[in-house]
C-alpha cells in the first residue's frame, strides 16, 4: 500500500490549480517494508519530493539507491529513512541485504 | 521470455530425453514411500507449491533475448582470448562438466594464483538479483565484465580486449548480427555474455517431478528430507523458492575472515555475510560455501546443526538443532534429488 501524505498532496494540487503552487509542487510519500518486501512496486512523486521508507518488518533492512549514490546503512525495525529526490527520472530502490526487495520511484 | 518446456529450454530441447530413468525407484521403494508419508498431504502440497519451477526464462527489457546474442555470448564465454594470457576463458572456472564451477575450494586465476573465493555456479542466474558472492554487481551484464578485467582473474582490460576482438572478422560479423550498428563495446560484450548465461538453466529434476505430482519420483528418505529442510533444519529461511535461494546476505558462521557484503555496503553488521547460493545440482558443485571449506553435503548439514561460529554478525536464522544419522541421510537424499541430468554442452568453434 502506498501511503501518501494526503494533506500535502492535496495542498499541492490546490496550489497548482490556483497557479500559486510552485513551492508546493512536490509531494511526500511513505513506503513501508513488510515481510521482506516493499509495499509498493512503483510510486510517482514530484521533483523535490521526500519519500519516507518505514521498516515495519521484524528484521533489519537497508535502502540502497545506486543512481543517487545513496546508502542508508542499517535500518532496524521501526526505523524510517527519508530520501529526497531532487532530479527527475526513474530510480531503482533496493534493500542491500535482501535484494529481492526492490521498487521504483518515478520522479516527474 | 524464453519458454522452458518440461524443464528444458525450448531452443535446446532436442537432446537429453529419457534421462530420468536412473532415478526411477523400485516398487519396494515406492511402497516405503507410501508407508512413510506421515505429514499432512495438504501441508506438503502447500510446501511443494513454494518450489514450483517457472515456465520461462526472464530477460530484462533493456537486453532482450536474441539467438544471435546468445550464440555470440557463448563464443565469448568459452574464448580464452578474453584473458590477458589468452589462456583463461569464463568457462575455465565455470566448467559445465562440474556444475558450472571448477571443483576447487577457491578459484584459480591469472598465473595459477589461488583466489580468495569459491567459483559460484552460472546455473539459473537469469533469476538472480545481484551478482558475485558479495553482490557487488547489480546486473548480469555488469557481472560478466568483472572477471575479465579483474587483475587476479582473467586480467585483460576491456580497452585492450576490444581492438583484439575487432581484429577478428568472425567477431565483427557476429557482433553486427547481434547488435546492428552498435559495434564491439563494453556494453555489447556484457550484453552478449549475459544473454548466453541466462540460457544456462538446470533441467527438470526428480524433485521437480515429485512437486508436479509423481509420488514415486523421489524416495521416502528424500521426501522426509524435504520436510526437515522446511522444518527443524530451517534451511528455507534462506534457501527459498524454486532455485532455493533468497538472494540475500547472511553470515553463516564460517571461520573465513573475508568481510563479504560488509566491504560493499560499509555496514559492519554485514561482516562475513555472503549471498545465499541456489541449491540446484548442488551434488555436482562440491566443495561448498564461499570459501570452499566444506567438502561434502553431510558436513554442510553438520555445520548448520552445530558447527558454526557464534558471533554478533551470525544470521538470526541460524540456530543449533539436533540431527540424527537417519535425518542427515534424509536431508542428503533430498539434496541429491535436486540433481538434473543436463543437456550436453557443445563447445563453440571460435572465430579466427
What do you see in this structure?
The complex is a heterodimer of chains A (108) and B (352). Chain A is mainly beta. Chain A has one domain: Cupredoxins -  blue copper proteins (Immunoglobulin-like). Chain A has one helix spanning 6-17; strands at 3-4, 28-34, 37-38, 42-45, 49-55, 64-65, 70-71, 80-85, 89-94, 102-107. In chain A, the strands form three sheets. In chain A, strands 1, 2, 3, 5 and 8 form a five-stranded mixed beta sheet that branches. In chain A, strands 4-10-9 form a three-stranded mixed beta sheet, with no helix packed on it. In chain A, strands 6-7 form a two-stranded antiparallel sheet. In chain A, strand 9 and strand 10 (102-107) form a beta hairpin. The radius of gyration of chain A is 14 Å and the shape is globular. In chain A, 30% of the residues are buried. Chain B contains 13 helices and five strands. In chain B, helix 10 crosses helix 13 and helix 12 packs across helix 13 (325-336). Chain B is mostly helical. Chain B is 34% helix and 3% strand. Chain B has helices at 27-36, 41-49, 67-77, 90-93, 140-149, 158-166, 169-178, 186-198, 206-211, 220-230, 261-265, 297-307, 325-336, and strands at residues 2-5, 8-9, 56-57, 249-250, 274-275. Residues 5-36 of chain B have low confidence and may be disordered. Chain B has a three-stranded antiparallel beta sheet, with no helix packed on it. A two-stranded antiparallel sheet of chain B has the order 4-5. The longest helix of chain B is centred in the middle third of the chain and has 13 residues, at 186-198. Classes of the chains: A mainly beta (108), B mainly alpha (352). Chains A and B meet through loops of A and helix 11 of B.
Amino acid at each position: 500500500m502506498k501511503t501518501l501524505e494526503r494533506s500535502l498532496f492535496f495542498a499541492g494540487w490546490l496550489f497548482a490549480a490556483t497557479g500559486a503552487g510552485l513551492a508546493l509542487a512536490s509531494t511526500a510519500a511513505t513506503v513501508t517494508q513488510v515481510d521482506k518486501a516493499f509495499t509498493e512496486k512503483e510510486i510517482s512523486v514530484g521533483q523535490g519530493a521526500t519519500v519516507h521508507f518505514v521498516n515495519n518488518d521484524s528484521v533489519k533492512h537497508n535502502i540502497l539507491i545506486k543512481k543517487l549514490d545513496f546508502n542508508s546503512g542499517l535500518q532496524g525495525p521501526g526505523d524510517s529513512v527519508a530520501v529526497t529526490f531532487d532530479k527527475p527520472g526513474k530510480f531503482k530502490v533496493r534493500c542491500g541485504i535482501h535484494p529481492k526487495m526492490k521498487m521504483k520511484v518515478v520522479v516527474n | 521470455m524464453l519458454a522452458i518446456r518440461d524443464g528444458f529450454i525450448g531452443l535446446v530441447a532436442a537432446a537429453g530425453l529419457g534421462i530420468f530413468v536412473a532415478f526411477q525407484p523400485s516398487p519396494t521403494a515406492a511402497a516405503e514411500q507410501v508407508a512413510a508419508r506421515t505429514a499432512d498431504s495438504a501441508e506438503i502440497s502447500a510446501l511443494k507449491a513454494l518450489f514450483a519451477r517457472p515456465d520461462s526464462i526472464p530477460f530484462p527489457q533493456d537486453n532482450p533475448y536474441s539467438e544471435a546474442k546468445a550464440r555470440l555470448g557463448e563464443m565469448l564465454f568459452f574464448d580464452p582470448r578474453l584473458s590477458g594470457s589468452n589462456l583463461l576463458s569464463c568457462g575455465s572456472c565455470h566448467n559445465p562438466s562440474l556444475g558450472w564451477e571448477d571443483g576447487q575450494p577457491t578459484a584459480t586465476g591469472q598465473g595459477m594464483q589461488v583466489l580468495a573465493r569459491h567459483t559460484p555456479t552460472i546455473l539459473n542466474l537469469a533469476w538472480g538479483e545481484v551478482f558475485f558472492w558479495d553482490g557487488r554487481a547489480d546486473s548480469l551484464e555488469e557481472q560478466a565484465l568483472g572477471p575479465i578485467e579483474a587483475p587476479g582473474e582473467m586480467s585483460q582490460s576491456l580497452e585492450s580486449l576490444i581492438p583484439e576482438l575487432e581484429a577478428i572478422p568472425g567477431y565483427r560479423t557476429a557482433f553486427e548480427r547481434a547488435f546492428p550498428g552498435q559495434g564491439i563495446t563494453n556494453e555489447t560484450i556484457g550484453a552478449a555474455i549475459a544473454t548466453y548465461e541466462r540460457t544456462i538453466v538446470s533441467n527438470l529434476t526428480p524433485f521437480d517431478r515429485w512437486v508436479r505430482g509423481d509420488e514415486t519420483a523421489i524416495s521416502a528418505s528424500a521426501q522426509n528430507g524435504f520436510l526437515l529442510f522446511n522444518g527443524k533444519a530451517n534451511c528455507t529461511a534462506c534457501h527459498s523458492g524454486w532455485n532455493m535461494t533468497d538472494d540475500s546476505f547472511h553470515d553463516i558462521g564460517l571461520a573465513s575472515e573475508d568481510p563479504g557484503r560488509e566491504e560493499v555496503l560499509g555496514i559492519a553488521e554485514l561482516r562475513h555475510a555472503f549471498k545465499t547460493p541456489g541449491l540446484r545440482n548442488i551434488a555436482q558443485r562440491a566443495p561448498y560455501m564461499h570459501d570452499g571449506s566444506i567438502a561434502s553435503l553431510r558436513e554442510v548439514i553438520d555445520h548448520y546443526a552445530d558447527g558454526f561460529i557464534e558471533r554478533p554478525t551470525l544470521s538470526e536464522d541460524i540456530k543449533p538443532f539436533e540431527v540424527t544419522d537417519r535425518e542427515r541421510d534424509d536431508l542428503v537424499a533430498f539434496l541429491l534429488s535436486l540433481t538434473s541430468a543436463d543437456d550436453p554442452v557443445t563447445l563453440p568453434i571460435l572465430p579466427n
